[in-house]
Amino acid sequence: MNVEGDRLSNLPDDLIRKILSFIDVKHAIQTSALSSRWRYIWTSMPCIDFSSEGYYMLSNFSKFVTHLLPSRNNQIDVSSVKLTFHGNDGHAHGNDIHVPVKKLLDYAFSHNVQQLNISCLRVKNIEFPLSLFSSQSLKHLTLTGYSHGCKTRFPRPSTLRVVATR
Q1: Which of 31, 98, 126, 134 has the fewest C-beta atoms under 10 angstroms from its C-beta?
Q2: Torsion angle of alpha carbons 46, 51, 52, 54, nearest 10°?
Q3: How far is it, in rounded angstroms, from Cα 34 to Cα 2?
Q4: pTM for the whole thing?
């Protein structure tokens, strides 16, 4: 059988991006080694899934987030961001978490994120920036935490308007 190229590389870019949206961004980047055509597809994914799983230190995860965001295609809006922290009792500190959360949220809001899911698993303290409540594009927000003694702090804006839509 004479097949030019592989079947995956013959798929349309939009379909490849959709497939990649089901895995975390670290694994999506690893797919760039599959072929030269796949090299930059991850940079235009509208759905980004970040997970700190597999990072022993959250500071390494923070460096990953910091270096990844400028490599993304800034012309493409971010429709969905999923951020999952898997903290260890001895390694999850508020400052380690706050840096990637703030950078990722600032980036997502500047690229018109519509859906945001944040899960903090076994994380002791986390503080969310005020930008979480001032986004004009955000339509769906899910915050999840699974930890005894978890302290989630939200900033207190001087005015906060909650609008329910159908």
Answers
A1: 134
A2: -120
A3: 20
A4: 0.73
Longest dimension (CA), the chain: 68
What is the 8-class DSSP label of residue 16? Answer: H
Q: Is 96 exposed, middle or buried (CB count within 10 Å of its CB: 0-12, 13-18, 19+)?
A: buried
Q: Break the chain into its structural domains and give their ranges.
A: 1-45, 46-166
- Strand 125-127 relative to strand 115-121, pairing: unpaired
Helices (H) and strands (E) in the chain, counts: 5, 6
Task: Give the whole-angstrom CA distance, residue 100 versus residue 106.
Answer: 10
CA pseudo-torsion sign 61, 16, 33, 38 = negative
Per-residue pLDDT of 26-51, as tens digits, reads 999 998 888 788 889 999 999 999 88
Strands 151-153 and 125-127: parallel
